[in-house]
Amino acid sequence: MTFSKNIVGRGFIGKNLLKIKRSLYKTKYTIYAAGISNSKIKSKKELKKEIIKFKLFIKKNFWKKIIYISTADVLHNLKNKSCYVKNKIIIENLIKKNFNHYLILRLPQIIGKTNSNKTLINFIFLKIKNDKKIVLIKEFRRNILDIDDVVKAIKIIISDRKLKNKVITLSNKYFTKPIEIVKIFEKKLNKKANYVFKSLPKQNWPLNYKKNSKFFKKANVRFNRNYLSKKINKYY
After folding, report:
1. Domains parsed from the chain with CATH numbers
2. CA 19 → CA 23, 26, 115, 149, distances in Å?
3. CA-to-CA separations, 54 to 44, 71, 73, 83, 125, in angstroms, rounded
C-alpha cells in the first residue's frame, strides 16, 4: 500500500503528492491518500476491505500526525448518500476518534494528467472522443480543481503549525455545469458530443470557498471564469 514513507496511496493523488514529500518529512505528516477511487462503487466486499485496511493503518500509526484525503461530496444534502461517501464519513470519524493530531482535507472533482476514466473530466473527454452517449444531469453543478493547485495548497496547509484537528474543504471559487465541460471539449476536439439531459432533484452543495481561500491565495493560485478551460487545454 505504501508508495512513499510519508504518503500512503499509489493512485492519481498519491503520486502527485510526491512533489511535496520533502515538506512532509520536515513537518512529520503522513498523508493517507489510499482507498477506493471509484465513487460509483457498490461492492460491499471492497467497501468493507477499505475500512479494514484503514483500521490496520490506525493500529500501526495512531501516534503519527495524519492528513486524510477525503471528498467534498460528504457535504451534499442528498438523503441517500453513495456507499463511497458513507465510507469516507466512517473513516473521517475513525480519524477524529483515534488520532491526536489530524487534518482532514475534503476535495471536489480533480483535473490532471491521468489515464483513469473515473475522474469526471477524463470520463467526459473519453465519451466524446469515442462517440459514446453522455447522460448529463441538468441540475448538477461541479466544482473542479487542478491537481497542481491542490498540491500547492496542501504544501501551505502543512506549513501552518497552528492547524490541528481540523476539517478543511478545498474548492474552486466557481462552479461548473457538466454541459459547460462538454462544450469546452466540443470546441477543442472540433467534434459534436452525443448527450442527453436527465433531471434529478436539485442538489445543495454548500462549499464555502471564502473559508479556506487563504491557502490558495498564499500559494498564488487565482480563480476566474476561464479557469477550467485553461486547465483542459493544459492537460488535453
Report:
1. 2-235 (3.40.50.720)
2. 9, 14, 19, 12
3. 16, 16, 20, 16, 33
Is the pTM for the entire model greater than 0.85?
yes
DSSP notation for 34-46: -S---TT---HHH
**Residue ranges of the alpha helices (H) in 32-146?**
44-61, 83-98, 120-129
The pLDDT, as a whole number, for residue 1 is 45
Name the residue among 114, 113, 120 with its Cα closest to residue 142. Answer: 120
What distance in Å separates the CA atoms of residue 144 and residue 217, rounded to the nearest whole number?
17
26-29 contact pairs (CB < 8 A, 24+): 27/65, 27/158, 27/159, 27/161, 28/64, 28/65, 29/65, 29/66, 29/67, 29/103, 29/158
Question: What are 179-199's pLDDT values in tens digits?
Answer: 999 999 999 999 999 999 988
Backbone phi, psi, residue 218, to 5°? -65, -30
